Amino acid sequence: MPDYDERQLSFKLVYYGPAQSGKTTNLLRLHDLLSPQLKGEIMTMETQDDRTLFFDLLPLGFRAPSGLLIKFRLFTVPGQVAHDGTRKAVLSRSDGVVFVADSDRSQETNNGESFQGLAENCQRVGIDFERLPLVVQFNKCDLPSAVPEAEIRERWSAVPWPLVFAVALRGAGVEATFETLLRAVYRRHAESLELAGKHGLTEAAFVAGALGRP
Fold this sequence. Notes:
6 helices
């Protein structure tokens, strides 16, 4: 459940996936692309080989018509298996997740193991995986060795989660991924938080405020 009081509402959104799939790149491109009312600097903790050790954090926010401050804290988790404890800590109390998969065919096993790890870690930190707002992004679609989009869609045809295809280095699909997650988060919490009735926030206004659209 998001952190909520009469003055502000804070959503924790986590980008999860195998090592070097493009989680940090997603946040860097989002920082460039978005222009909400409130946008902090991205904070990154890295190892010597430039892989994310702990997390990246990108804070965003805007005010609802009621005056309520809506805040988003975007995190990435480290992809390396050695940092599973950190992954659980970052994932804890998250309100929505983007799973960033690597489209390279050689990474299929890593993608599968990481997704299974996401489901297991959600259970360990008390998140209902079946109700969690979740978007699956297949990144690096421009690679010569990338699995074709049609093949991925066929494999994932039975799952309930939306798929987005991206080339995060170029910014392609990054904003669409985030928007898809925002819509899922709104639909999950709108009724319980009275976002429309009490705060004048429709789904469209919620998404527009987070993205910085007029």
